[in-house]
Protein backbone atom coordinates (compact mmCIF):
# COMPACT_ATOMS: atom_id res chain seq x y z
CA UNK A 1 0.00 0.00 0.00
CA UNK A 2 2.84 2.41 0.78
CA UNK A 3 4.32 1.87 -2.67
CA UNK A 4 0.93 2.68 -4.20
CA UNK A 5 0.84 5.95 -2.25
CA UNK A 6 4.37 6.85 -3.34
CA UNK A 7 3.34 6.19 -6.96
CA UNK A 8 0.38 8.54 -6.41
CA UNK A 9 -2.10 5.73 -7.07
CA UNK A 10 -3.95 6.27 -3.78
CA UNK A 11 -4.51 9.54 -1.92
CA UNK A 12 -3.82 8.35 1.63
CA UNK A 13 -3.48 5.33 3.85
CA UNK A 14 -3.69 4.66 7.56
CA UNK A 15 -1.43 2.70 9.90
CA UNK A 16 -3.37 1.46 12.89
CA UNK A 17 -1.88 1.31 16.36
CA UNK A 18 -1.12 -2.37 15.70
CA UNK A 19 1.27 -1.31 12.93
CA UNK A 20 -0.74 -2.61 9.99
CA UNK A 21 -1.50 -0.47 6.94
CA UNK A 22 -5.21 -0.51 6.29
CA UNK A 23 -8.19 1.16 4.71
CA UNK A 24 -9.86 3.40 7.25
CA UNK A 25 -12.43 6.09 7.72
CA UNK A 26 -11.11 9.64 7.26
CA UNK A 27 -9.81 11.16 10.51
CA UNK A 28 -11.82 13.59 12.63
CA UNK A 29 -8.79 15.21 14.30
CA UNK A 30 -5.32 15.14 12.79
CA UNK A 31 -1.92 16.30 14.01
CA UNK A 32 0.33 16.62 10.93
CA UNK A 33 4.09 16.74 11.15
CA UNK A 34 7.39 15.33 9.97
CA UNK A 35 7.96 13.45 13.27
CA UNK A 36 11.72 13.25 12.79
CA UNK A 37 11.66 12.18 15.56
CA UNK A 38 8.30 11.77 17.30
CA UNK A 39 8.57 13.28 20.79
CA UNK A 40 6.65 14.26 23.92
CA UNK A 41 5.67 17.61 22.42
CA UNK A 42 3.72 15.79 19.70
CA UNK A 43 2.16 13.10 21.88
CA UNK A 44 1.43 15.49 24.74
CA UNK A 45 -0.32 17.91 22.41
CA UNK A 46 -2.39 15.08 20.92
CA UNK A 47 -3.43 13.88 24.38
CA UNK A 48 -4.36 17.39 25.50
CA UNK A 49 -6.49 18.02 22.42
CA UNK A 50 -8.16 14.61 22.68
CA UNK A 51 -9.16 15.41 26.25
CA UNK A 52 -10.31 18.92 25.31
CA UNK A 53 -12.43 17.82 22.33
CA UNK A 54 -13.46 14.38 23.55
CA UNK A 55 -12.26 12.60 20.40
CA UNK A 56 -9.10 10.65 19.56
CA UNK A 57 -6.32 12.45 17.71
CA UNK A 58 -4.46 10.72 14.89
CA UNK A 59 -1.14 11.80 13.38
CA UNK A 60 -0.32 12.49 9.73
CA UNK A 61 2.89 12.36 7.70
CA UNK A 62 3.06 13.77 4.19
CA UNK A 63 5.58 12.20 1.84
CA UNK A 64 5.63 15.47 -0.09
CA UNK A 65 6.95 18.76 1.28
CA UNK A 66 6.97 22.22 -0.26
CA UNK A 67 10.53 22.90 0.94
CA UNK A 68 12.24 19.48 0.95
CA UNK A 69 12.68 16.41 -1.26
CA UNK A 70 9.96 13.77 -1.20
CA UNK A 71 10.38 11.09 1.45
CA UNK A 72 11.58 7.67 0.30
CA UNK A 73 9.84 4.39 1.06
CA UNK A 74 12.46 3.51 3.68
CA UNK A 75 12.26 6.90 5.36
CA UNK A 76 8.46 6.79 5.58
CA UNK A 77 8.66 3.26 7.00
CA UNK A 78 11.24 4.39 9.58
CA UNK A 79 9.05 7.25 10.77
CA UNK A 80 5.95 5.06 10.85
CA UNK A 81 7.74 2.57 13.09
CA UNK A 82 7.79 5.18 15.87
CA UNK A 83 3.98 4.95 16.13
CA UNK A 84 3.76 1.15 16.24
CA UNK A 85 1.64 -0.17 19.13
CA UNK A 86 1.00 3.39 20.27
CA UNK A 87 -0.88 5.65 17.87
CA UNK A 88 -2.83 5.79 14.63
CA UNK A 89 -1.05 7.65 11.84
CA UNK A 90 -2.16 8.61 8.33
CA UNK A 91 0.19 9.00 5.38
CA UNK A 92 -0.67 11.28 2.46
CA UNK A 93 0.88 13.31 -0.33
CA UNK A 94 -0.80 16.54 0.86
CA UNK A 95 2.06 18.98 1.40
CA UNK A 96 -0.07 22.00 2.38
CA UNK A 97 -3.07 22.51 4.64
CA UNK A 98 -5.00 23.60 1.59
CA UNK A 99 -4.41 20.11 0.16
CA UNK A 100 -5.00 18.39 3.50
CA UNK A 101 -8.37 20.14 3.89
CA UNK A 102 -9.43 19.00 0.41
CA UNK A 103 -8.34 15.45 1.24
CA UNK A 104 -9.90 15.33 4.73
CA UNK A 105 -12.95 17.64 4.71
CA UNK A 106 -14.42 18.40 8.11
CA UNK A 107 -11.15 17.58 9.86
CA UNK A 108 -9.74 19.54 12.80
CA UNK A 109 -6.00 20.06 12.37
CA UNK A 110 -3.79 20.31 15.44
CA UNK A 111 -0.77 22.58 14.95
CA UNK A 112 1.87 24.42 16.92
CA UNK A 113 1.90 28.21 17.00
CA UNK A 114 4.89 28.23 14.63
CA UNK A 115 2.84 26.41 11.99
CA UNK A 116 -0.16 28.69 12.61
CA UNK A 117 2.09 31.68 11.89
CA UNK A 118 3.02 30.21 8.51
CA UNK A 119 -0.64 29.62 7.73
CA UNK A 120 -1.56 33.30 8.06
CA UNK A 121 1.50 35.18 6.81
CA UNK A 122 1.45 36.36 3.19
CA UNK A 123 5.20 35.73 2.81
CA UNK A 124 4.44 32.01 2.80
CA UNK A 125 2.15 32.61 -0.20
CA UNK A 126 4.62 34.49 -2.35
CA UNK A 127 3.82 37.74 -0.47
CA UNK A 128 0.33 37.59 -1.97
CA UNK A 129 -2.36 38.54 0.56
CA UNK A 130 -5.15 37.54 -1.82
CA UNK A 131 -3.61 34.07 -2.24
CA UNK A 132 -3.36 33.66 1.53
CA UNK A 133 -7.00 34.59 1.97
CA UNK A 134 -8.01 32.26 -0.86
CA UNK A 135 -6.20 29.37 0.86
CA UNK A 136 -7.89 30.11 4.19
CA UNK A 137 -11.27 30.42 2.46
CA UNK A 138 -10.76 27.04 0.80
CA UNK A 139 -9.82 25.44 4.12
CA UNK A 140 -12.92 26.94 5.75
CA UNK A 141 -15.01 25.84 2.76
CA UNK A 142 -14.00 22.25 3.42
CA UNK A 143 -15.25 22.62 6.99
CA UNK A 144 -11.81 22.44 8.56
CA UNK A 145 -10.52 24.26 11.64
CA UNK A 146 -7.33 24.43 13.70
CA UNK A 147 -6.39 23.83 17.32
CA UNK A 148 -3.20 25.72 18.16
CA UNK A 149 -0.75 24.69 20.84
CA UNK A 150 1.81 27.19 22.12
CA UNK A 151 5.48 26.94 21.14
CA UNK A 152 8.68 28.64 22.21
CA UNK A 153 10.00 30.80 19.37
CA UNK A 154 13.63 31.31 18.31
CA UNK A 155 13.95 34.12 20.84
CA UNK A 156 12.88 31.94 23.74
CA UNK A 157 9.41 33.52 23.99
CA UNK A 158 6.37 31.30 24.51
CA UNK A 159 3.84 32.07 21.77
CA UNK A 160 0.23 30.88 21.85
CA UNK A 161 -2.65 31.62 19.48
CA UNK A 162 -2.97 35.17 20.82
CA UNK A 163 0.54 35.84 19.55
CA UNK A 164 -0.36 34.79 16.00
CA UNK A 165 -1.42 37.64 13.69
CA UNK A 166 -4.58 35.98 12.38
CA UNK A 167 -6.23 38.19 9.73
CA UNK A 168 -9.62 39.70 10.46
CA UNK A 169 -12.43 37.35 9.51
CA UNK A 170 -10.53 34.13 10.22
CA UNK A 171 -10.08 34.11 14.00
CA UNK A 172 -13.02 31.74 14.43
CA UNK A 173 -11.07 29.04 12.57
CA UNK A 174 -8.41 28.87 15.32
CA UNK A 175 -9.00 27.45 18.80
CA UNK A 176 -6.09 28.09 21.14
CA UNK A 177 -4.70 26.12 24.06
CA UNK A 178 -3.26 28.35 26.75
CA UNK A 179 0.03 27.75 28.52
CA UNK A 180 -1.68 26.14 31.52
CA UNK A 181 -3.29 23.54 29.27
CA UNK A 182 -0.22 22.63 27.27
CA UNK A 183 3.45 23.54 27.24
CA UNK A 184 6.32 21.22 26.30
CA UNK A 185 9.57 22.96 25.32
CA UNK A 186 11.11 20.39 23.00
CA UNK A 187 11.64 20.31 19.23
CA UNK A 188 12.57 17.66 16.69
CA UNK A 189 15.42 19.82 15.41
CA UNK A 190 17.03 20.08 18.83
CA UNK A 191 16.61 16.37 19.42
CA UNK A 192 18.29 15.56 16.10
CA UNK A 193 21.16 17.87 16.92
CA UNK A 194 21.61 16.35 20.37
CA UNK A 195 21.78 12.81 19.00
CA UNK A 196 23.92 13.46 15.90
CA UNK A 197 27.55 12.35 16.08
CA UNK A 198 29.99 15.02 17.19
CA UNK A 199 32.25 16.39 14.50
CA UNK A 200 35.92 16.99 15.12
Describe it for me?
It is a single chain. The protein is of the alpha/beta class and 200 residues long. The protein is 32% helix and 18% strand. It has helices at 2-6, 40-53, 73-81, 97-103, 113-120, 129-141, 188-195, and strands spanning 12-15, 21-22, 29-32, 58-62, 89-92, 108-112, 145-149, 151-152, 158-159, 174-176. An 8-stranded mixed β-sheet has the order 2-1-5-4-3-6-7-10. Helix 4 runs parallel beside helix 6.
Task: Name some characteristics of this structure.
7 helices; single chain; alpha/beta; 8-stranded mixed sheet; 200 residues; two-stranded antiparallel sheet
Which whole number gives the mean pLDDT? 92
- Assembly state of the chains shown: single chain
The best one-word shape is globular
Termini separation: 43 Å
What structural category do the secondary elements indicate?
alpha/beta
Number of helices: 7
Name the helix and strand elements from N-terminus to C-terminus, one letter apiece: HEEEHEHEHEHHEEEEH
Radius of gyration: 17 Å
* SS elements, strand count: 10
Summarize the SSE layout with pairings.
Blueprint lengths: L1 H5 L5 E4 L5 E2 L6 E4 L7 H14 L4 E5 L10 H9 L7 E4 L4 H7 L4 E5 H8 L8 H13 L3 E5 L1 E2 L5 E2 L14 E3 L11 H8 L5
Helix pairs in contact: 4-6
Amino acid sequence: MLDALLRDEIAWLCQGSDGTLQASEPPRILLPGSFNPLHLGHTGLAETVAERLGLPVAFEISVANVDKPELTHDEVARRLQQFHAKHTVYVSRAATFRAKAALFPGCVFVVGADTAVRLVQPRFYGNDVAEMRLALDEIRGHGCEFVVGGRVDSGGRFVDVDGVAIPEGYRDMFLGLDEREFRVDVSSTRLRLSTSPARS
